[in-house]
Amino acid sequence: MAAGGNREMAIAPTTASREAILARVRKALPQSAPLPEVRQRESWQVFEDPLAQFTEVLKLVGGNAVHVASVAAAAEHLEQLPTWHQARIRCSFVDGLGDHRGMPAEISSPVEYETVEYAVMRGELAVAENGAVWVSDVSLPHRVLYFIPQHMALVVPTAALVNNMHEAYDRLNIGIQRYAGFISGPSKTADIEQSLVIGAHGARSLTVFLVDELG
Question: Is-contact 212 158, C-beta < 8 A?
Answer without folding.
Answer: yes
